[in-house]
Amino acid sequence: MYASREDIGYDFGDDSKAGSKPIKPNPNIDGGWAWMIVLSSFLVHILIMGSQMALGILNMEWLEEFNQSRGLTAWVSSLSMGITLIVGPFIGLFISVCGCRTTAIIGGILNALGWILSAYASNVHYLFLTFGVTAGIGSGMVYLPAVVMVGQYFQKRRALAQGLSTTGTGFGAFLMTALLKYLCMEFGWRNAMFIQGAISLNLCVCGALMRPLSPKDLSEKYVVKSNSEDNQAKALSHSTETIKSNGVLGEEPEKKEEAANEEVLGSVQHIEIGGKSGSGRNMYGLRILKTVSQLTVTVRKGFALWYSSYFGAASLFTNRVFVAFIIWALFAYSSFVIPFIHLPEIVKQYNLTRQNNVFPLTSIIAIVHIFGKVILGIISDLPCISTWNVFLMANFTLVTCILTLPLMQTYVGLAVVCALIGFSSGYFSLMPVVTEDLVGTKHLANAYGIIICANGISALFGPPFAGWIYDITQKYDFSFYIAGLLYMVGIIFLLIQPCIQKKQPREKSTEEAQV
């Protein structure tokens, strides 16, 4: 099952800058403060993704309170989950301009505000705006920096680090399900959301822990990455010809932009020096001008990097495997989200409420999900194992479980399938690793933003679609079958594109030999 570099087209855009000269690695890369970043990301996953996985509890409360259809009510949860991920590309712009720390702190405040305002909802449409949009955007502003920072701080143990940090989703789903159920029983769902909003303010603390690496530290990481590639033999890359044609993403525009920026700042500094003999008021005005100029330079530089990644001549979309990865993401995430939103209703239909109250099926998914992420991360870090192959095998297992779940009508059968869903969905911890291998660390924020945006579209339409199918057929079976088949289409795209990428250079070399 091992895949060599030539098997899949991966583009290490940043590695062309790395030299062969040995550089002493920064102690914070793969160690030191890097583990604080893992802790911060772990807590973010508990508070954001864990809470969203527990929304089935609130969904039942909203159905009773507002007496709306299942399809319409499911839009509240879907908007929150979907917008959290859909805003990824725009959050990438925020990260390029403001950095991960500032973006995450602002997002924490916005997320808490969304929860608190939702406590005063008078109808479902009010929740669309407060919980779906406001809390969703805030969640996205914290979630993406949490993933990107782990990718920046780790090289040798990336899969393990991402696996440990993303286990927060499983822990969160288990803890938040129990917490929200208790709060709703004791205080009602409105007070439960108010309390959850107060708890969400801890996201600001998590953001404060995201200490940025200096450009020097990042360059050292690129060198370490370049030197370790030959030993690991598990990263996958484009052919030499593709890399030459694409080049480093946005390298030339950045050089021109930096030259223009230095010219602007230099002119401002020259005016400031020349005006030292002037009045104090003029000096104060010059300092304000200099500050505004520096801020403008930062914004222009961040926007240039963001724009070149998406729309430049050598944009991310020229990587065919990355495009296939996006298509897969459009279908994949809804297959994981639908069980969390609708399992409580399915259990109620099968008269399994008593057994489910003892040990909820969603908690089984959450607990096994924790072990799945860690185990799959450890396996992927082994030198003889391909991360790509582990990723594909986990996807095949998950889609099989989604197609099998409607056939199970006993608690034991549902519990076994849910356990397999939880373990196989541990591949989520490999998504940042695969994305970084595709585009490099420098473009991870923008690239992963696109991937989670596609996941967000999947999460946005998945649960309402399942609710709509139920309203028509009075069964959830067809919802799982259709979601599973669409998921399979996405997996097929992942399998086809690497084969095409591998075949094209060989065909061209044959033509050259004939000439």
Number of strands: 0
Order of helices and strands: HHHHHHHHHHHHHHHHHHHH
Report the portion of residues in β strands: under 5%
Helical fraction: over 70%
- Mean pLDDT, rounded to whole units? 75
Contiguous low-pLDDT stretches (5 residues minimum) are 1-23, 222-254, 503-515
Cα end-to-end separation: 36 Å
Biggest sheet overview: none
Number of helical stretches of at least 4 residues: 20
* CATH arch. level architecture of the largest domain: Up-down Bundle
CATH superfamily of the largest domain: MFS general substrate transporter like domains
Q: What would you report as the Rg, rounded to the nearest angstrom?
A: 24 Å
Structural domain count: 2
Globally, the shape reads globular
- According to CATH, what is the topology of the largest domain? Growth Hormone, Chain: A
The helix/strand class is mainly alpha
CATH class of the largest domain: Mainly Alpha
Molecular structure report:
The structure is a single chain. The protein is globular. It has 515 residues and is mainly α. It folds into two domains: 27-211, Up-down Bundle (Growth Hormone, Chain: A), CATH 1.20.1250; 316-504, Up-down Bundle (Growth Hormone, Chain: A). Helices cover 79% and strands 0% of the residues. The chain starts with 33 loop residues before the first helix and ends with a helix.
